[in-house]
Amino acid sequence: MLSSRINKLINELGRLSVDLAVIVPGPNFRYLVGSYIETFERFGALIICMNNGAYALILPRLDEGKARATGLPYIVYGDEEGPLGAIRAFVTNNCGVVRRVGLEGRATLNYLWTMRKVIGEFNDYPVDDLLMSMRISKDDDELRSIERAVRAIENGIRAARESIKPGMTETEIAKLVSSAISDAGAEPKDVLVQSGPNSVIPHWMPSRRRIEVGDVIVIDVTATYNDYYGDLTRTLVIGDPPSEFWRVYDLVRRAHDEAIASIREGVTGSYVDSIARRVITEGGYGQYFIHRTGHGIGLEVHEEPFISQSYGKPLPRGSAFTIEPGIYLPGRFGVRLESNVVIRLDGRVEVLDNYWPDVIIKA
Fold first, then answer.
1. CA pair distance 104, 83, nearest whole angstrom
2. CA geometry: angle at 83 spanning 82 and 85, to 5°?
């Protein structure tokens, strides 16, 4: 599987006249290598030569155990010698003349400088779009990992829904969610609990604010399983809801549902966004829908495809993404509802989450 991904990348890079590619630790590295290997300030990369199709991990010696576990060819170097000799030996033996080097946007200047010390001057070529075009269509194993992450998040939101009471802090609720996700075998990532006036701030992080009767509570949770993300949001109220709440909630839920109903292979992200945006705008709250309708999920929590006004690309089979319309009334409350949707490899559209708790929590 991993070698087939690397070989596909080699074929694509060859058509672009790239002579050598450097893939640094991060999601693309994980996709090609099968694991995250974080080398921090030390040089670490998957280096690929198009001249003969050779590739190898170049890593610090302290990561040799991780390199061996990948099953891929590797060269390690010690701190006392640095990476230049290892890189030079591999490039000299495999790459031939190097005029064009494929680099990711996340590669730091240090990677650029290091490669120039070995190769000399070269033209750099961005490979992010190519790698994302490979990652955007997930195979069945990848989609199963996303689904496992979603199930764990549902357990976390359920645990919060069953425990919330006046006087608890946002942070205490977030801990409950994280614990339940861990118990389900996934890894909690960002657990956002946004209560009362904080519910109008979409990326508010949990604070020591205490929950009060009448608060709207937005719970937005990401978690990973086998490094693949799920991302869900539910909105709750403790006690009697504020005026206008149900009108806003029902409008957001309708935007959510109609956007999902519009999804099929080949429609654009901008089209799906327009469906959700039309519902909210016609309902009189368009100015309070302040973000895109959704984003892709996979090895990154935000990746292609984007469900936004500017994303004109078609949604392919194997893609996974969120649908999360929201309305935020300054100084009052916010409502956001988020599901995870996949277009299966056979073209079926499926919503991965199914936990929709009662909105009202008795005080």
1. 19
2. 100
Q: Is 293 helix (H, G, I), strand (E, B) or coil?
A: coil
Query: Whose CA is closest to 300, among 30, 105, 34?
Result: 30
Q: Is the pTM of this model over 0.85?
A: yes
Q: Which of 122, 98, 108 is nearest to 49 (CA)?
A: 98
Domains annotated for the chain, with CATH where assigned, are 2-135 (3.40.350.10), 140-361 (3.90.230.10)
Residue 112, helix vs strand vs coil: helix
Which amino acid makes up residue 180?
Answer: A
Q: What would the pLDDT profile of 312-343 be if each residue is shown by its tens digit?
A: 999 999 999 999 999 999 999 999 999 999 99
Alpha-carbon torsion (247, 196, 221, 130), positive or negative:
positive
pLDDT, position 1: 64
Could you report the per-residue pLDDT of 155-187, keeping only the tens digit for each?
Answer: 999 999 999 999 999 999 999 999 999 999 999
Asked whether the beta carbons of 48 and 20 are under 8 A apart, the reply is yes
Q: What percent of the chain has pLDDT over 70?
A: 99
pLDDT in tens, 262-283: 999 999 999 999 999 999 999 9
User: Is the peptide bond preceding residue 25 cis, with omega within 30 degrees of 0?
Assistant: no
Q: Is 340 strand, coil or helix?
A: strand
From 126, 161, 51, 44, select the one nearest 95 (Cα to Cα). 51
In this structure, what token pair is assigned to residue 252? Answer: 């957001």
Question: In whole angstroms, how far apart are CA 323 and each of 189, 196, 253, 267, 277?
Answer: 19, 23, 11, 14, 12
What's the pLDDT tens digit per position in 106-123?
Answer: 999 999 999 999 999 999
Residue 149's φ and ψ, nearest 5 degrees, are: -65, -40
Residue 97 burial by Cβ neighbours in a 10 Å radius (0-12, 13-18, 19+): exposed
How far apart CA 50 and CA 48 sit, in angstroms, is 7
Question: What confidence category does residue 3 fall into, taking pLDDT thresholds of 50, 70 and 90?
Answer: confident
Only one residue has tokens 């790239």, namely: 18
